[in-house]
Design a protein that fits this description.
heterodimer; A: about 110 residues; mainly beta; 6-stranded mixed sheet; 3-stranded antiparallel sheet; 9 strands; about 0% helix; B: about 120 residues; 4-stranded antiparallel sheet
Chain lengths: ~110, ~120
């Protein structure tokens, strides 16, 4: 059972907006930054969002992150077929003294 | 270009030991905090532990499931990161990723990832 809760799947048609939620607690998301990682099929994950809503260079601005209290979300606007992937949220947990991940959300482009 | 290349994975029996290595290049390794993240086949990501840079003490933190069995170390003279795994269990079977931990800016997350090394614990 993961400390952070994500829906197992999400989907949309090309061009649509998809939002993935990530629910935590006061010892992780409520206290520290949220990160999002994208894992394309058969590849290593890559950093998508850091410090709740910052994008590393090279990440399209179609991807955006937000946080409120102990929950966070990742929005993908203008959905593309190449966005089909697993998306993971993560945060530092002060009680566990370690990083925790959500179980991941598989995004399908219909 | 940042490169992280893991090696040392393979098949090991329960109770056995294995050491993973990660060769780093393309960035100033001794400035970086480093972590290991693993992914069991068909499952999600799990943080294994991290090691600070020498300037911040060079100490390591390990996740509860591996504490006392796994040890993270580094050799800055060789730009190498290590994961010594002892008393291996079947549930340790996973792809193990070497990652930078907040290298680009403070709290930038796991900025760069290796390609991963598969460790299979089975009799």
């Amino acid at each position: 059972q993961s400390v952070l809760t994500q829906p197992p799947s999400a989907s949309g048609t090309p061009g649509q907006r998809v939002v993935i939620s990530c629910s935590g607690s006061g010892s992780n998301i409520g206290r520290d930054y949220v990160y999002w990682y994208q894992q394309l099929p058969g590849t290593a994950p890559r950093l998508l969002i850091y410090k709740n809503n910052e994008r590393p260079s090279g990440v399209p601005d179609r991807f955006s992150g937000s946080k409120s209290g102990s929950s966070a979300s990742l929005a993908i606007s203008g959905l593309r077929t190449e966005d089909e992937a697993d998306y993971y949220c993560a945060a530092w947990d002060v009680s566990l003294n370690g990083y925790v991940f959500g179980r991941g959300t598989n995004v399908a482009v219909l | 270009e940042v490169q992280l290349v893991e090696s040392g994975g393979g098949l090991v029996q329960p109770g056995g030991s294995l050491r993973l290595s990660c060769a780093a290049s393309g960035f100033t390794f001794n400035y970086a905090w480093m972590s290991w993240v693993r992914q069991p086949p068909g499952k999600g990501l799990e943080w294994v532990g991290r090691i600070r840079r020498e300037a911040d003490g060079g100490t390591a933190d390990h996740a509860s499931p591996v504490k006392g069995r796994f040890t993270i170390s580094r050799d800055d003279s060789q730009n190498m990161l290590y994961l010594q795994m002892n008393s291996l269990r079947t549930e340790d079977t996973a792809v193990y990723y070497c990652v930078t931990d907040g290298y680009e800016v403070i709290s930038s997350g796991f900025d760069y990832w290796g390609q991963g090394a598969l460790v299979t614990v089975s009799s």
